[in-house]
């Protein structure tokens, strides 16, 4: 039995600095030295294992077993989702229907700046709401490339856009996890998160336009960016607070598309469409309504399948195949003496990836793709990821070694010791968590209890700190090694994760700073009225 010790050196500052080494290593290797994601992930994993054994006195076997548990978790949580999401996209390409989908998006506007908003922000938010797990980054990247955007810029746009909807992604899974680990009402966390990320949503379309065309783009397209961001943010706030946090991204995504269409019809962007690296498609033929319906059918099927899976009777039936078991040989207790959960959940029917697979199989009928051809396409989809698979496995292994050894707890306790200023740093904790795990749900599982405990010690709102963990975490999605690996794999840029990291890191820090300021003001009388 291994018991965690958040301060193994006797100096919390020194323990925290040692615990930071794996995380800093990933950031330096990717951003500074431009290493490939799998090598950066494996190096950080090796360092975390060394620190766990040498500093935290974790038995080597337990440390390696923790890494195996993390890698196994990533299969269902990320890989299974991403493979099936990209496979559905590949089916539309192979069947020839993606060109119809491309022309449908182009019909809204031939301006790449507007297309970036519609595809990366609005459509990406819909994909994040339904599945998450890297699917929006992968699918939106390839869609933008098909419309003429340079691959590296397309991947950067998809990563930056996948921020505001993440806190409620996967039918609100991060918020649900937050409620589960803290024992507090998830609805309250959802309402508070809606009062934070909805403000962020207003800014994201402007950032996307700036990435595409700089200041000129913002000056010429700002009304459409404002329409997209404001409509999304207002809807996200209203639905998360007064309807259901599980539905807010779906509704907000649809409303924002409608707002963009209306804004384009009322006032076309000034200037001329810009060239963004790949040129614009020449095919401008008109498609029939049936062709357009078939092209969008796979995504409509996804909405229907996921909606059906939320019906109580269906959900109960799917959960009957779920098996939970204690991971063999992994026995850990926290610093408080309570057992740390080391339960592996195998849910072959209710898993998000499985629901996407079912959606893909149903799409075969609409797209008229034979089963044999579909299997061949699936094989090519997996081969496309190549080294990205190893990167994702390594990063998840890293996150679980840091978590189970106590390195994560050390960082949280260290930051929580800053007193009232912790309200400013609360989103940073979530940012660290997503950088390591790659998912907002994973960050909430790691730090949710720490956030609410710190709130109680500081006589602050646990809902503010818990939601800040989730809201701050979304800004790290774009720099997480596993999401960088997914973005480069989808864009055909495997091995260039470091360059992609450099393109988006500044935006991650800027948006994080804004969230830190907002969270701090919400902890004071200035914006305290925003806390439920």
From TrEMBL:
Membrane topology: Multi-pass membrane protein
InterPro entries: Lactate_perm (IPR003804)
Major location category of this protein: membrane
CC terms in the record's Gene Ontology section: plasma membrane
Pfam families: Lactate_perm
Location(s) in or outside the cell: Cell membrane
Alphabetic keyword roster: Cell membrane, Membrane, Transmembrane, Transmembrane helix, Transport
Key word Chaperone present: no
GO molecular function: lactate transmembrane transporter activity; solute:proton symporter activity
TM spans (from-to): 12-33, 39-56, 68-89, 116-147, 154-172, 192-212, 221-238, 244-264, 292-313, 355-378, 385-405, 411-434, 504-522
Function, as annotated: Uptake of L-lactate across the membrane. Can also transport D-lactate and glycolate.
PANTHER family in the cross-refs: GLYCOLATE PERMEASE GLCA-RELATED, L-LACTATE PERMEASE
Family: Belongs to the lactate permease family.
Name of the protein: L-lactate permease
